[in-house]
């Protein structure tokens, strides 16, 4: 494992290198294909019910109960209407 303030590289048990590149707010790092080594992450948009307010190599977080994100804006969660069912995420 080698890390810097903005990225990380991991050597797996088969001697292959995985490089985690930082992503912008609203996106998380994901491995698209591991057929080419070293494998590098690509940015994917946070899914419905999740958000990521800061850039980096961390995943998106679930919206708290009473909050929602419809997937079109993964930077923050918004309050649900008081008349709607709004579970965690």
Describe the fold and architecture.
With 89 residues, the chain is mainly beta. It is built from no helices and nine strands. A five-stranded mixed β-sheet has the order 1-2-3-5-4, with no helix packed on it. Strand 4 and strand 5 form a beta hairpin. The protein starts with a strand and ends in a 10-residue tail after the last strand. The model has no long low-confidence stretch (mean pLDDT 87).
Q: How would you summarize the topology of this molecule?
A:
Layout lengths: L1 E2 L4 E4 L5 E4 L6 E5 L7 E7 L4 E2 L9 E2 L4 E2 L9 E2 L10
Parallel strand pairs: 3-5
Antiparallel strand pairs: 1-2, 2-3, 4-5, 6-7, 8-9
Offer a few descriptive terms.
elongated, 9 strands, two-stranded antiparallel ribbon, single chain, mainly beta, 0% helix, 89 residues
- How many separate helices? 0
Structural class: mainly beta
- Mean pLDDT over all positions: 87
Alpha-carbon distance between the two ends: 32 Å
Largest pleated sheet: 5 strands, mixed
Number of strand elements: 9
Helices and strands, in N-to-C order?
A: EEEEEEEEE
Whole-number radius of gyration? 16 Å
The best one-word shape is elongated
The percentage helix is under 10%
Strand % is 25-35%
Unreliable segments of 5+ consecutive residues: none
Order of strands, main sheet, comes to 1-2-3-5-4
Write a brief caption for the model.
It is built from no helices and nine strands. It has 89 residues and is mainly β.
């Amino acid at each position: 494992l080698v890390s810097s303030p903005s990225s990380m590289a991991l050597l797996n048990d088969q001697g292959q290198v995985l490089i985690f590149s930082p992503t912008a707010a609203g996106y998380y790092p994901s491995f698209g294909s591991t057929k080419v080594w070293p494998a590098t992450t690509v940015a994917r948009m946070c899914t419905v019910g999740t958000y990521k307010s800061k850039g980096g190599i961390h995943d998106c977080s679930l919206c708290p109960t009473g909050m929602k994100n419809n997937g079109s804006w993964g930077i923050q969660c918004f309050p649900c209407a008081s008349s709607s069912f709004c579970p965690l995420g």
